[in-house]
Structures are given as C-alpha cells and as structure tokens.
DNA sequence: AAAGGAACTTAACCTAGTTTAAGATGTTAT
DNA sequence: ATAACATCTTAAACTAGGTTAAGTTCCTTT
C-alpha cells in the first residue's frame, strides 16, 4: 500500500530505509466509497491526500450552484484544499470520491514533522508544487485563449485514463461549459 | 538594493549574517527600461527575477496574436517562465518591463547551489510556490465562474497599486476580455 | 421485470462578450 | 507646434456558449 507512495517519491528523490520507515509511519490508510466527501466546506481540510487507487475530484460550487472542477486526482495524484490545509481556515473547495478510492493521508502536523526529519522531502514537494503551478498556468491560458474543442483535446492528453471513467457532465465542468454545450461540441467533433 | 530581497525573505524564514552574504552574492543586479524584454520566446528563461522597483508582466501570445496576461509583477514579486527556467526548454511566455525596472536575478545553477548552502530557503520557495498555486486556483475559478465586473473588482483588490499605473488594455488582457468590452464594463460600473 | 431517476441529446431562443470601424483624446518625437 | 502614433470610447452587427425544455437512453433499486 505504502509502496506505491514510496515509488512515487523515489521518482524524484533518494531515500534510505530509515527514511522510508518514517514516511510509512506518517501516512495513514483510508478507504472511501464512491460519492463520499473527503473535504466539505466549511470544514477545515485536515489532510493532504495521496490517491493509491480510484479517483477524487476537487471542485468549487459557485453562488448559482454550478460546479467548477479544479482537478481530477486519479492514481498517484495528490490533492487537498491547499489554502485550508496550510492556514487551518475554512475550506472553500469540495473533495469528493468519484469511485471507491484508497488513500494515504497525512495531517499538517505530521507533515511538518516529517519534513524536519526527512528534509529531502522539501525537494519533492517543491517539485510537486512547481508542476502544479505549470499545470495551472497552462489551464488558465487554455480557458482564456482556446475554444472548447481544443480544451477537450488537451483534457484527453492530460488524463488519458479518465475519458471513459467519468460521466460527461464532469468533463464539461472541468472544461468550463454546460453539459448541453459539451454534448453539442462532441457531436461536432465526431463528424 | 539586496536589502529589499533580504527583508522579503525574512518575512518567512530567519537568516544568519553568513547566510545573508551567501544570498547577496548569488543574486545579480539588473536594470531595464520600459518595454524591454526579460524573456522572449523561444529563448530559454535564464533567471528567476525578483522585482526591486518598477513592474514586469508575464504573458502568452496566442496564435491570433492576442496577448494573455499571466501575472503582473510589481515591487517584491517574483517572476520567470517557470517551465523554461526549470527544464531549460524553450520559453513560451514573454516577460516584459512595463516601467523602468530594477531587478535582482539568479541563474538556475546559482539557485541550486544556494538552496544546498542555505537549505532553509527551500522553505521560503515552498511557501512562495504554495501561494502561487492558491492565487492561480482562485484566478482560474474567477474566469470560470465570474462576470467581468466581479473579476475587475478582484483585480483591484489584488493589485491596488497598479490601477492607475497600467494602460487599460493590459488590465483587459489580464481579465481575459477585449479592451473595447472592458471600456463598456467600466462605464457601466461608474453609473 | 418494472419503475424511477440519473445522464445524455437535440433544438429554439437568449446573452455576454467579440469584431469591425470610426471618432476622440493623449503622448512622444522632431 | 505639429506630425505620428498609441490609447480610449461608442456603437452596430455578429458568434460562442448559456438556458430552457422535451425526449431518449441508461442505471439502480425494488
């Protein structure tokens, strides 16, 4: 179970056996069913979540009740409401399981400790955050400069494993359009 | 000159005199005139830039020649084309001076060394990146869920010092609308 | 197997924002 | 001071995407 996490960390940093044990001891295992919430505003986001199997999504619910997907987190992705997790303030984003999902979770305190004991992990998280920034910048520019067709094609490249795992209205919410319009776009593409 | 940078770092981490010297020695001073480019695709982004005075902007030029502003970087902000800087690949974003600007710059190699010699700086950059992520998430949701009026009001909150320093067409490009439409929106607000 | 609900499609009508174009105002260089 | 250019405004015609609504298909639950 923790092996998947260690594998992922070792893609970017080297770890001693002792460090691996510290890490394993710091993350707790959690299993949730489809449709369960991991974070639900205004609760504080208590954990950083690493997905071992299954899929989570993080989204914002605007004043009209429209759902806007920030990210999908399938296997080996991390997610939390970063603002809430770091500052211990009320969360604004929902995190929900789209499938039965197995997770490794870590609290803020445990993470702070772990970073002190295994300083190299700072590097891992720096890289993780850098990648998140690059992804968000690209996504922002996509929304600002591309038509839905193109955004859809990029979604397919970014999440090839998800196309047939997610209902279309969730993909529409990720692309920033209504399910009705997305349906129109798809039929346009297939001709 | 470097004092502004050290002050900024000390908001989040403590530094010894020796560390301060290492930092000072790693950043070089650079002065550019209004309209000069710091990064121009496809050149590789050689530096991380810290703005001491003046203002930079980072933007993407799409296939139609439309300019999309990623961020403005006035005093005490950092900016670079992160992807290009980290991976030494061709840049995709322009960074241009909106005013005569004084900068402190650091190369990728110097930064890597500095992070080894002053490991606490990893914390500073982790925090910097975390803030960048939260800002980008908020901006993305804004574009997806808010009308231009509201986005404009948020721009004013985020960059109170910039409202009267920038031409309107740049603010329009940050908000993701044409200057023509932005003009209409402003006149609507002022009544 | 039937019933109820969720997800998807299609289509007619609506609206926020774009495009094009022209005129007005401001700025810079000579 | 004047030319030349950049910026800002207004308005008319247009388009991408939203809204509403009805019908269809697919899943669950019983």
Summary of the model, kept short:
Chain A has 191 residues and is α+β, with helices and mostly antiparallel strands. Chain A has helices at 2-10, 17-26, 82-87, 108-117, 120-145, 148-158, 168-175, 179-189, and strands at residues 28-32, 37-39, 47-53, 55-61, 67-74, 78-79, 93-97, 101-107.
List keywords for this structure.
homodimer; 191 residues; alpha+beta; Jelly Rolls; four-stranded antiparallel β-sheet; 8 strands; 23% strand; globular; DNA-binding
At the first level of CATH, the class of the domain at 2-118 in chain A is: Mainly Beta
Structural class per helix/strand content of chain A? Answer: alpha+beta
| Assembly of the depicted chains | homodimer
Strand order of the largest sheet of chain A: 1-8-3-6
Strands of chain A, count? 8
CATH topology of the domain at 2-118 in chain A: Jelly Rolls
Describe the global form of chain A.
Answer: globular
Spell the H/E element sequence of chain A.
Answer: HHEEEEEEHEEHHHHH
Mean pLDDT across all residues of chain A, rounded? 95
Helix content of chain A: 40-55%
Number of helices of chain A: 8
What is the assigned CATH homologous superfamily of the domain at 2-118 in chain A?
Jelly Rolls
List low-pLDDT spans of chain A. Answer: none
The first-to-last residue Cα distance of chain A is 44 Å
How many strands, which pairing sense, and closed or not: the largest β-sheet of chain A? 4 strands, antiparallel
Rg of chain A, Å, rounded: 18 Å
If interface size is counted as residues with C-beta under 8 Å from the partner's C-beta, which chains form the largest one?
A-B, 27 and 27 residues
SS strand fraction of chain A: 15-25%
Q: Label the CATH architecture of the domain at 2-118 in chain A.
A: Sandwich
């Amino acid at each position: 179970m923790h092996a998947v996490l260690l594998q992922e960390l070792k893609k970017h940093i080297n770890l001693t056996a002792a460090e691996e044990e510290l890490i394993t001891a710091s993350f707790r295992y959690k299993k949730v069913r489809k449709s369960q919430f991991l974070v639900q505003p205004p609760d504080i986001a208590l954990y950083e979540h690493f997905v071992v199997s299954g899929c989570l999504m993080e989204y914002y619910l605007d004043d009209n009740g429209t759902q806007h997907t920030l990210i999908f987190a399938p296997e080996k992705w991390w997610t939390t409401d970063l603002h809430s997790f770091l500052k211990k303030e009320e969360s604004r984003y929902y995190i929900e399981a789209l499938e039965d999902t197995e997770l490794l979770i870590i609290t803020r305190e445990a993470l702070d400790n772990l970073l002190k004991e295994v300083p190299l992990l700072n590097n891992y998280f720096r890289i993780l955050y850098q990648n998140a920034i690059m992804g968000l910048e690209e996504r922002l520019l996509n929304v600002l400069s591309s038509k839905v067709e193109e955004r859809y094609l990029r979604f397919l490249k970014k999440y090839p494993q998800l196309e047939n795992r997610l209902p279309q209205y969730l993909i529409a919410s990720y692309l920033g359009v209504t399910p009705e319009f997305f349906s129109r776009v798809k039929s346009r593409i297939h001709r």
